[in-house]
Predict the 3D structure of the following.
Amino acid sequence: MTMRLLPLVSLLVLLNGCGKPGPGSPSEPNAGGAANQTGVPGPFEISTQSGVPMVYVPGGEFTMGSDQGNPDEAPPHKVKVSAFLVDKFEVTQEMFAKAQLPNPSHWQESPQKPVERVRWRDAKRYCNERSLLEHLKPCYNEKTVDWDCDYSASGYRLPTEAEWEYACRAGTDGPYDFGRADRLRQYAWLAENSDQKTHAVGQKKPNGFGICDLYGNVSEWCEDVYSANYYKESPAADPQGPPSPEKDVKRVIRGGSWKSSPDQCRATARQGERTGNTDACFSTDYCGFRCVRRVTPAELQQLRAAQ
Amino acid sequence: MLNPTSVAGIPRPRFALRPFLLFAIIAAALILHIRPANAQVPFRERLKSLPFKIAYETYVDDNWEIFVMNADGSNPVNLTKTPNANEHYPQISPDGRQMCFSVDEGEGRDAVRSLYVMDINGKNRKKLADHAREPFWGADGKLVGFLSQEFPKFNVSDFYTTGMNFYDLAKGEITPHVNSSNLHHLYNPGWSRNGKWIVSTVHAGMGVEHGILLIEARGTNIINLKIPGCRPCLSPDGKQIAWGAGDNEIAAAPINLDAERPSVGEWTLHIKDQTNKIYHVDWSPDSRFLSFSRGPNGEGDLTKPGTFQAACEIVGVHAAGWNICVVPADRQGTLDLNDPSETDFLMLTTDGRSNKEPAWFRARR
């Protein structure tokens, strides 16, 4: 992918808007976009077998992190990311119920609101259930303590921290892919405009890749173990986070939420959240997730042809 | 050990005879007034003299079983002995003659949780329903209430329920609660002895973020008791409620269940444990003792067959190091389980084999 073309792609996506979430006709945020190494233009939107809109994010290299944010965002470093599909919207309560999982959310006024108060393993459980629904090979081994991830499997999983930031930055290098911070309200539900609650997904403008609600609504679980120092030792290609410590494991959550400040919504801002299986009473209502999956060029062609 | 705050108002004595004597008299009066009359009797001896037993779930030989022991923890007996089925969540009928419980068969998302009833000696086992959980006895012992699983696929979450049903033991029929279609994501229900109310936790359902509800047993009235936490238990005398007020605390308070609109009074007992989780509180048949499960935090052990991964207090999750404990319920103030001088506290089991969900009953001669 020639990343220089991405600002133009971003502009086209912004003009399109996020559109309604859920199953429906996929839009093409990058109609006529640049060719990538698969020979397929991108980024663009597809609809999965079960009707979930996803965005194809072509592989590429970007600068991850920042030396102008919090200490855990430094040092900025070059990272290569392989192509992947990412959910256009945060996983909604309707999608969670479709996977026969109990909706733990605080705000249930609309099934199109993102699922929240969802624990890290329950997010992974959803990924496996969705994989099974679409006859894909589940990524997570449910027989291991941390539900170890098989990154080569065809099924759904949580994004790595690198994938999340790459998708959010959409080829740009600032704190927000759309530019100035004073435009954040157009792209995100955050503390200053959320009325202190979540909102149905897809109400705000998408980012440059056509992905909605990355900056706000709910923060999103990633696969990686959180370590403040990880960027000093992170591998250069498809980093998957540090190994899991035995105790007090925190996993990365990315993106702002309905209760975040603008600074917390930045594309490079990092947080660690305990995954502990606390009792139902004690889970947090600002944490949700979205899924990603690897896709082969041949499968991508098929998915695109089926639209 | 008294709650230090209960004597906080007493002035510090000086080394003069009259103030010292005054202090000693007041302190003695306070101790005699607040401590139960028989507190001098060692706690285990008090329990040993009780005509009660306690059922509980435990994990032995790679299998969940239901055991019964005496009130002082002596003579544990395996009631189920079923290597191919995993029994848990024992609930005893008001007359102490029968027990209903849940059984898991299969593994992972294909597991099926069913409800059974059997005699208190383990005989005459009978299935009541599949894809059901968290049974509770009607006040007259003729009905077993239960919650239906939310979806067919298994999930270990405690609030994975929808609706409420009653199994009539005489007729063998299941009828839904009159308001069943509006009952959602309940867990740990229990019936009041006056038959009017069913108390239950709700999580992310019925318009409630999380709470403890009173649900009218034969109607549509629902009252949010506005107390923090989960897993409530009503005392057999109908005058008190105990519940898990947090991961590390259990509370007890008066409740007026005969009132038109019952409410919870000021907390009378606050059990705290800073180093362990404490859950599954249950009243003794005379409403004078509380049993509960206690152990370290954990998320299960997937190497154990028939178990699942979630918070270790949840039914079906292996809880290493957990044991059944008992305290007096007539104690007032704070009871700190980490205080080594505490004498009103006894661990009835000590093997740590995931002992959970205690249920008292009156032993039959």
Notes: Residues 17-34 of chain B form the longest helix (18 residues). The mean pLDDT of chain B is 90. Chain B touches chain A through 33 residues (CB under 8 Å). The longest strand of chain B covers residues 52-60.
